C-alpha cells in the first residue's frame, strides 16, 4: 500500500478547494467530492488504513491529531519503510470542511498531459521544475492500470502505431501485460522494475526510454528536466535528499492551522 498512501497525500495537497486556502487538508479523505474525480475513481486506495490509524488515535487522544497530519505522516512512513528517505515534518495541520470533484479534475496533473501543462500545475502550488522531476520519482513505487498505458502501446496520438519513443523490448513486454482488448484495462503494469522498493530505478528506466507513463517519459524531452533525470539515475542519495525536501514543500501547500478548519473524528465526514 506504500504507493497508494503516497499518491493519496499528493492528491490531497494538490487540490485547492477554496483558493488560496486548503491544499493539504484531508479533503481527499471525505466521502464524495474528490473521491469521485477521474484521477481518483476506482484507483485511489488506502482509506481504510487512514481510518484505522485515526480510530486508534481517537481512543488514545481524542480530537488532537487531524486526518491531514495522519495522511502526511503515513506517506512519509510508506516511503521510509520501502527503503526511501526519512524527512522531518511539522504537525498541527487542521482538516478542511469541503471537497470538490471539479477542483480535483481540473487541478491534478494527468498521465496524458504535456510537460508544460504539468509544470504549470506545479507552479500554481508554489512548486518548481525541480519539484516536478523529484516528485515524479514517487513513481518508483506501485502500478498503473493498463487503460492508462494502452494508448502509447497501440494508437499513440491517433497514429494507429505505438509511441516511437518507447524502447522496443519494453514495448513488447507491455503489450503482453496490456493486450489490445477492453478486458485488459484493469490489468496492472509496474511503474518501474522494482515497484515495491523506493529507489532510483524509475530514472534509469526513463534514460533507457522505458518510462511507463507518457507524462513520465516526457521528462526526457526537455533539456533541463532531462539532465536532472540523468543525474538522479546516477546518484540515488541525491534523489533521496531532494525527494525529502520536495515532500516537505508539498506538505506545506495550503495548510489550515489555528482555529480554522477542524480535527475530524472520522476522516470520511466532517464533524
From TrEMBL:
Cofactor binding description: Binds 1 heme b (iron(II)-protoporphyrin IX) group per subunit. Binds 2 calcium ions per subunit.
GO BP annotations listed: hydrogen peroxide catabolic process; response to oxidative stress
Binding positions for Ca(2+) 2 per the UniProt entry: 140, 192, 199
Annotated Ca(2+) 1 binding sites: 12, 15, 23, 25, 27, 34
Record-annotated active site: 11 (proton acceptor)
Binding site residues for substrate: 109
Cysteine disulfide partners in this protein: 13-24, 67-267, 146-178
UniProt catalytic activity: 2 a phenolic donor + H2O2 = 2 a phenolic radical donor + 2 H2O
Record bears the keyword Oxidoreductase: yes
SUPFAM superfamilies associated with the record: Heme-dependent peroxidases
UniProt cross-references to Gene3D superfamilies, sorted A to Z: 1.10.520.10, Peroxidase, domain 2
GO molecular function, one term: lactoperoxidase activity
This protein's UniProt keywords: Calcium, Disulfide bond, Heme, Iron, Metal-binding, Oxidoreductase, Peroxidase
EC id: 1.11.1.7
Residues annotated to bind heme b: 139
Domain Plant heme peroxidase family profile stretches: 1-271
Domain of life: Eukaryota
Residue(s) at site: Transition state stabilizer: 7
InterPro entries per UniProt: Haem_peroxidase, Haem_peroxidase_sf, Peroxidase_pln, Peroxidases_AS, Peroxidases_heam-ligand_BS, Secretory_peroxidase
Record-stated family: Belongs to the peroxidase family. Ascorbate peroxidase subfamily.
Database matches in PANTHER family: PEROXIDASE (PTHR31388:SF180), PEROXIDASE 72-RELATED (PTHR31388)
Free-text function comment from the UniProt entry: Removal of H(2)O(2), oxidation of toxic reductants, biosynthesis and degradation of lignin, suberization, auxin catabolism, response to environmental stresses such as wounding, pathogen attack and oxidative stress. These functions might be dependent on each isozyme/isoform in each plant tissue.
Protein name per Swiss-Prot or TrEMBL: peroxidase
Amino acid at each position: 500500500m506504500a504507493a497508494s498512501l503516497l499518491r493519496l497525500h499528493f492528491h490531497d495537497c494538490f487540490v485547492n478547494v477554496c483558493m488560496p486556502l486548503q491544499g493539504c487538508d484531508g479533503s481527499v479523505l471525505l466521502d464524495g467530492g474528490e473521491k469521485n474525480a477521474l484521477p481518483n475513481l476506482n484507483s485511489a486506495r488506502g482509506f481504510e488504513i487512514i481510518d484505522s490509524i485515526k480510530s486508534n488515535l481517537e481512543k488514545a487522544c481524542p480530537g488532537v491529531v487531524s486526518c491531514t497530519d495522519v495522511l502526511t505522516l503515513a506517506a512519509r512512513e510508506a516511503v521510509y519503510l520501502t527503503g526511501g528517505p526519512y524527512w522531518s515534518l511539522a504537525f498541527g495541520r487542521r482538516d478542511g470542511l469541503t471537497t470538490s470533484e471539479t477542483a480535483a479534475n481540473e487541478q491534478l496533473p494527468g498521465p496524458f498531459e504535456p510537460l508544460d501543462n504539468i509544470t504549470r500545475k506545479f507552479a500554481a502550488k508554489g512548486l518548481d521544475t525541480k519539484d516536478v522531476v523529484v516528485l515524479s520519482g514517487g513513481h518508483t513505487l506501485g502500478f498503473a492500470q493498463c487503460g492508462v498505458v494502452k494508448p502509447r502501446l497501440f494508437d499513440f496520438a491517433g497514429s494507429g502505431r505505438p509511441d516511437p519513443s518507447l524502447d522496443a523490448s519494453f514495448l513488447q513486454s507491455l503489450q503482453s501485460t496490456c493486450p489490445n482488448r477492453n478486458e485488459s484495462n484493469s490489468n496492472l503494469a509496474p511503474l518501474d522494475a522494482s515497484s515495491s522498493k523506493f529507489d532510483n530505478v524509475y530514472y534509469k528506466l526513463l534514460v533507457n526510454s522505458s518510462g511507463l507513463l507518457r507524462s513520465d517519459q516526457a521528462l526526457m524531452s526537455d533539456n533541463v528536466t532531462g539532465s536532472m533525470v540523468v543525474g538522479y539515475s546516477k546518484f540515488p542519495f541525491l534523489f533521496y535528499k531532494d525527494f525529502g525536501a520536495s515532500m516537505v514543500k508539498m506538505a506545506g501547500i495550503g495548510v489550515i492551522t489555528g482555529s480554522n478548519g477542524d480535527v475530524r473524528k472520522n476522516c470520511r465526514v466532517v464533524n
